[in-house]
Input
Amino acid sequence: MLQTLSSTTPPVIESGNQTKTRARVSRDDRNTAGHPFVDKPRMSCRDVNVYYGDKKAINSVSIDIAENEVLAMIGPSGCGKSTFLRCLNRMNDTIAICRVDGTIKLDDQDIYDKKIDVVPLRAQVGMVFQKPNPFPKSIYENVAYGPRIHGLADAKTELDAIVERSLIKAGLWDEVKDRLDQPGTGLSGGQQQRLCIARAIAVGPEVILMDEPCSALDPIATATIEELISELKLQYTIVIVTHNMQQAARVSQRTAYFHLGDLLEVGQTDKLFTRPSHQLTEDYITGRFG
Amino acid sequence: MIQKSVTIIAVAVALLAGSALGTSKAIARDYVSIVGSSTVYPFATTVAEQFGKSTKFRTPKVESTGSGGGLKLFCSGIGVSHPDISNASRRIKKSEYDTCQANGIEDIIEVKVGYDGIVLANSKKSITMKLARKDIFLALAKQVPDSKTGKLINNPYRTWKEVNPSLPDTRIEVLGPPPTSGTRDAFAELAMEGGAKTFADLTALRKARGDEVKILMDKLGIPENAYNEKGKTVFKLVAHSIREDGVYIEAGENDNLIVQKLEANPDALGIFGFSFLDQNEDKVQGSFIDGHLPTFEGISDGSYPVSRPLYFYVKKAHVSVIPGISGYLEEFTSDKAWGDEGYLADKGMIPMPDEERTKFSTDVKNLTPLVWQ
Amino acid sequence: MSTEKTMHIVQRGLGKRYRQEKIFKLMGLSAILFSLAFLVFLFSSIFLNGYKAFYQTAVSIDIFFDPAVLEVKDPASANYNGLIKESLRNAFPEVKKRKQKKNLYGLVSTSASFHLRDMVLADPGLVGQTKTIWLLADDDVDMLMKSYIDRDLPQADRRMNDLEISWVDKLIAEGRVTSRFNIGFFTNGDSREPESAGIMGAAMGSMYMLAITLALAFPIGIGAAIYLEEFAVKNRLTDIIEVNINNLAAVPSIVFGLLGLAVFLNFFELPRSAPLVGGLVLFLMTLPTIIITGRVALQSVPPSIREAALGIGASKMQAVFHHVLPLAMPGMLTGTIIGMARALGESAPLLMIGMVAFIVDIPTGITDPATALPVQIYLWADSPERAFVERTSAAIMVLLTFLILMNGTAVYLRSKFERRW
Ligand SMILES: Nc1ncnc2c1ncn2[C@@H]1O[C@H](COP(=O)(O)OP(=O)(O)OP(=O)(O)O)[C@@H](O)[C@H]1O
Ligand SMILES: [Mg+2]
Output
C-alpha cells in the first residue's frame, strides 16, 4: 500500500473509498506514506534532494500539488519545510551554497531546466515570507512595484486599478485606502503581512507560496489571513508552511508531514489529522514528539 | 531612473579617465618649472614671486625636493615634462653631470647665488658657547679617538666640560636635522670633517690609499669590513657618523621646530640654517665656531667656517622654449635681488662678493655652459 | 523556600555587580573627558596661535601719482615702488642715511606696489592726484602690532630696531596704522611675503583634486562594492581580491604617491604638480576605503528586502538598484565622505608628484600647477619668517573647518536617510 519513492507508476487518485484502516507505518520507515500524487497536478516534484554545502537538508522528496488546492506543510523545526518551499520558485538560487537536484515541474515544464528564466517563474509562483518584509516605500509603491517591473500596466489608471484590486483581495483596502502614500513599514504586523500578500498577488501569480505567514501575528490578524487564504484558493494554488496544526486543519485540503528532511506522509488534511498512517506523524500531531 | 544615471556616470568617468590619460606629452608649458634644494627654496621662491608679479609671465613653480632629488629630476631629460632649473645647496656631482649628458642635456649653466651658514645655536637664556670644530666632532661623532691610545672608541663624552675643559659643565644635547636633509650633509662635511681633521691619524687616513689605509685602520681600530681602497671614503665614514645614543636628537626637517625646542630647553644646542637664526634673534643665539660668530659679514667673507655655497643649474636648451626663463634669470642676478642690499639678503641669503657676482651674471647673460674639468 | 534562597544569593551578588557597572561607567567617562581635554587643548592652541592671522596691519600713506613716473609707454611696468619710496621719504624727511632709508622703505609690504599698479590700471584718472591710501604693512610691523616683537628687549635682540619702532609709533600717533580684516588671506595665492600670502591657491588645488577623486572614486568604488557583494560568485579569486582590497586600504599613502609618479607622470607623461594627477593618486588611495564601506553598507541591508524583491520576480539587478542600493546609500555616502576627508588631509603622496611646490598663481584648471591645503600648511610651517607661524595655524583652522564640515555632512546624511526596518 505504500507509495515507494522511486515509483513511476501513474499517480494514485485519492478517492473517498480509500479510507479503510491501514497498517501503522513504523518509526524507522523513511518512505512517504499516504497519497503524495494527484491527477493533473499543477506542480510535481520527483526525487528532490537539497544540499547546503555537504549537508543534505531534503532527502528524495516526491509530491504533487493540485490545481486550486491549499497544501499545508507541517513538521518539527529544522525539518526542511522552508527549504523545500523555496525550491518551488527557485528562491534557493540566492543561497550560494545551496544545491538542488531532482525534477520540479510547473505545468510539465521543468523549472530547474537551464532554459528557464527565474524572473517570469517567480512572477508565476509568488512568495510570502515568514516575517513581513514590505519595502521601505509607500503602500502604493509596495503593491505597484511588481506590476511595474513586469510591465503589466500601460497607464497610471491601470496600475491604480491593479493596486486597488490586489489590496481588496488581500483584505487591506478599507484600512489603507486613505493613506496609500504612507510608508508600508508604518503598518501593524498583520497589516504588513497582508500588504505582502497584496504585493505577491499584484503580479498575478498562479501559485502562492507562504512560509509561516502568521507566525508573528495575533489570533485576530491570523484569522483575517486565514479567511483570506480560503478566498484566494478559489483562484490560486497555495502552499503554506505552518507550525499551527489547527491552522493547517482550517485552511488546507491536503497536508504534508516533513521529518528531518524526509517527506513522511501526505494525505487529506482531515484524514491525516484523525488517522495518520505513519507513527511519527501521529507522534507529532498528538504532541508526543520530541 | 537610477540605472540611467548610473550609465551616465559610468560614461562620464570613462570619458574623464580617457581624456586624462590621453593628454600626454603635448601639453605646452607656459611657466618655468624649478625643483631642488630646500635651502635655496626660500630664495628661489622670493625671486619667482617678484618676477611673476612684476611681469606678464606666469609665476615660476618652485618645488622643494632636496638637492639630490632636484638634480635627478633635472637630469632626466629635455622637454616640457622635465624641470628647467634645479636649485642645489652643493655643487653638481660628476655623476649627476654625466647623467645629464647621457640624457641629452649637454649645456647646463651653473649659477652660484650666494652662501648659507649653518649655525649651532642655543637659547638666549644660556651663555654663548665658544666651540671649536674639534669640540663639535668630539661631542657628536659616533666614534672618537681615545685620548690615550688614539684608537677609535665609542663616544664616551657626556658633558661639554669632558670634551673641552674650557666649556661649561652641562650635558651634551644637540637637536639637528635627520640624515635625509641637506643641512645635515653640509654640517657633516664642514663641521664634523673639519673637527676630524684635527687628529693626525685621521688626516693621514684621509690621504692614504691601498695598503696604507689598512695599516692606519689597524692603528685606529677600525674593523676590516669598512675597508675601501680610498682612505677618504673610510675617513668620511668615521667623520660623518653621528652618535646614536640619544645625545644627538633628530628633530625633523622643520627648523622652526628646533628653534621652539631650544627655547624650552636652555641646555640644548640646535643645528639649522642661518636664516632661521636671523629671524629668531630674540630667542636664540649662534655659537662661536673657531672664534667666529655666525654673522652676515662673517659668512660672506668666509671667516665663519661652517658655510656653504648655494647654486642653481639651468638647461640652456629650455631657455628659448619655455617663456620666462631668461626673465627669471635676469631677476635673480639683478642687484636688487642678490646684491649686498638686495631682497634675498633680507631673506637671509648671504650675498657673494662683487667679483663673483659679476662672473656669474656674465655667465648667465652669455648662457655660458658648464664644462667639467 | 528555594525562591528565598535564590533571592538571597542574588542579593548577595548585587552589590558587586553594581560596583562593577559603576567602575566601568567611570572609566568610560574619564576616557571621554581625557580625549575631550586633548581636543580642547589642540583646538585652543591652534586658535590662540592663529586667530590673529585673520587681522592684518595696514598703514596709510599719502601717495602722489606722479605723472612723470606713470606716463610711460606701459603703465603696468612703471616704477610704483618709486612712488611709495617717495611718499615715505616725504613723511619722514629727517631720514637721510642710505641704510636707514632702506629700513624705512621696509615698513611697507613689497606687495604694496602691485596694489598701486592695479589701482592705476583700473582708474587711469588717478594720475596727477594725491591720495591717502591704505597699504599692507610689512610682516615685521604686523608682528610688532600684534606684540610678537617685544619692545622691552635690547635692540640687538629683536627684528626691529628702536628707530623703526619710533617710525611706527609716529604713524600710530597720526592715526595712520590700523588693523583690518585680512581678506587677502582668503583670496590670495601663496607668497613669500607673509602679509600677502593666502590660501586661495591651495584651497582651489584641493578642490580640483577632490572633484576628480570624487568623480572617479564614487562611481567606481560603489560599482565595485555592488559587484563584489551582490553579483560576484564567491570563489578563490574573489577571496584574493577581497584580501587585497583590505590590504590596499592599509597601505601607507606615500606608496600611492610613488605609484602615481611611476604610472601617471613617467608612463602617461601627465604634467607634474597638476591637480589631475593628485586627484588620480588620491582616487587610488580612497578607492579601497569606499569599496569596503560600500560593502559594509550593502551587507547591513537586511536580506529580507532582497528576497522580497526577488520573490515577486525582480531581476537581481532590479532588486539591487531599486531596493538595496537606496537603503545602502547613506552608509556609502558616509564612507565616501570620510574617504574624501582623509584625501583632503593627505600631503605625503602629493610630495612624489610635485605638488609640494611654491605656486603663486591660483590654478584655473586641472592641469595648472597647484598645491593643496595640507601641503600649504607644511610649507608655511617650514618657512623662516615669524609671521608664517600664525598663518600656519590659521590655515590649519581653515582645513579643520573643511574637515568638520565634511564629517558633519556625513553625520547629517546618516541621520537623515538612515531607515529603520
Ligand atoms: N542558508 C542555509 N545554510 C545552511 N543550512 C541551512 C540554511 N537554511 C537552512 N539550513 C539548514 O537546513 C535545514 C532545514 O532548514 P529549514 O529552514 O528548511 O527548516 P524549517 O523546516 O523551515 O524549520 P522552521 O520550522 O524552524 O522554520 C536545517 O537543518 C537548517 O539548519
Ligand atoms: Mg522555516
In short: Chain C has a mean pLDDT of 89. The interface with chain A takes residues 233-234, 302, 304-315, 318, 322-323, 327, 419-421 of chain C (CB under 8 Å).
